Amino acid sequence: MGGMQDLLEGHEPHEFRQRFKTLFILVTVALSILVIRLWYLQIIKGDELKQRSENNSVRLRKIKQLRGLIMDTNGYVLVDNRPSFDILFVPNRIKNIHDVVKKLNYLYAERAITFSTNLPSAKKVKRFVPAELEKNISREKLAIVETHALDLPGVAVEVNSVRQYLAGEMMAHVLGYTGEICQEELGKNTSDEYSIGDTIGKYGLDKYFDRYLKGKSGAKQVEVNVRGQEIKVIGKIEPVPGYNMVLTIDSYLQKIAWEAMKDRAGSVVVMDPRDGSILSMVSAPSFDPNLFSGGISFEDWEKLSSDPRHPMENRAISGQYPPGSTYKLIVAAAALEEGLITPETKFFCPGSFELGNRTYQCWQKKGHGWVNLHRAIVESCDVYFYNLGKLIGVDKLARYARGFGFGAVTGTDLPREKSGLIPTKEWKLTKFGEPWQMGETISVSIGQGFNSVTAIQLLNAYCALANGGTLWRPRIVKRIETGDGRPFKTFNPEKKSSLPISRKNIDILNYALWGVVNERGGTGYAARRAEADVCGKTGTAQVIGMPEDRKARRKKIIPSRLRDHALFVCFAPYKNPEIAVAVIVEHAGHGGTVAAPIAKKIIDAYFKLKVTTQVQGSGFIAF
Prior knowledge:
By secondary structure, this protein is α+β, with helices and mostly antiparallel strands.
């Protein structure tokens, strides 16, 4: 017992005190570290961690708005919206997007379905920020994703809307298409109205009037579970749909014009000469705008962009062609207004015209004999207009052509309109560094040479002749209205200018245009109706120059892509015209043979529709 006491009072208490001191220091250090860490997390990182914590359960999600509808003049819907299902990936517990894609690929492969290869880079995927995997998926894919939701953590299906173009190819160039906004478009936007992932108009009316059609997006604050699936909505800001748009286009006439063109390349434009309203606009070949609604595939885009027929070009406003004999009315107007001729002035046509050492042929190889202005227009005598061109001169002729609206855009409500070309002496000197030659004036006087016009320019000029001299700005939109049909903005007829010729001379020209279609020998006889109410002018525009010698011309073999364009422009009825039509068919030959019958079908349909509407209501034909 005494020995034990000695031990307790000896070495053991000293060793115990040392160990206790060491342990105390360790515990103190540990507690200090813990306190410092808690201070750091609570004070320094408190706000950030609080936000992260909330992000684990609450999300702010954008609600995309519905774009406005586009309707024809009678209120029939041409463009609406349909549901679209998109697959999103929200990184949470699963960070690697490619793991999820691998699972989806496996599930798709079981049903022989392919997965989109346009995936975001793993480095660009941010935590809690939704990444788009696939857009506008099929119902079969939707069923797979919904059925295997537990096996696809972080994957969610979002319902959006995409454009549905009910008229398809028939009105693609007018209505246009939409797509996801790109970085370049975002950079041009200074109003912060757009953000990544937004839909924007890319072409046609959907582009030109995007500010009215797009509406305003909304947002909702939702609570989600660990898989990123929505549990309940905490707060919501409703989206605002876009305004609706009512066009001047008539669906019935649009369909008639489209079918009349069949598989030919070219364009048709139909207008009301009383106010410049566009009743129909066709450009062929065309494309299906619905291909762009859900994001066009690389294969489809390559097919469209590499097509040598250029199906995405709106030939009605961007196709530039020599006007051919349709230009003779401008030459006649200039000669009359300048007092260089009277309607009775005659020139002899032997079938050719000599200028220096060069011979210019008339289309009628045996010649027209002595002809006055009226017969020269009716029979489209080239020699008569060669003489007029020589009298007028290129610069004065160009001044009158511009007075008819040529050489400048018409200002219609569509992007990418081209201005055509009306040459002058100064233009050639600037462009080529060469002086103008009289022989070039001879070519210009029958609508050849450097001349180029668009279908809408040509029609607008003839509309001005039809209505007595007013040049309207062609309009394709009648009004913009709210979802419940209340007018928001109305587009009234807009006068651009007046023709630079007197009403007396306009009447002289219009009577000659009536003769083209209704008199014996008229080149536009194929457009004649029983009512004898159509006034028009044919045109045949050369794509390449032809040999002067007739035998050499007959022997020359011309490939189809270099053959003449066929043109016809007309209006009806002769007194108080209501409708005007311009038809250009590429590489089709003579205007009177090919283009005039197309215009006649449209005019026949217009007056038939007018009678039907008066008796039964609208004659709309469903797409």
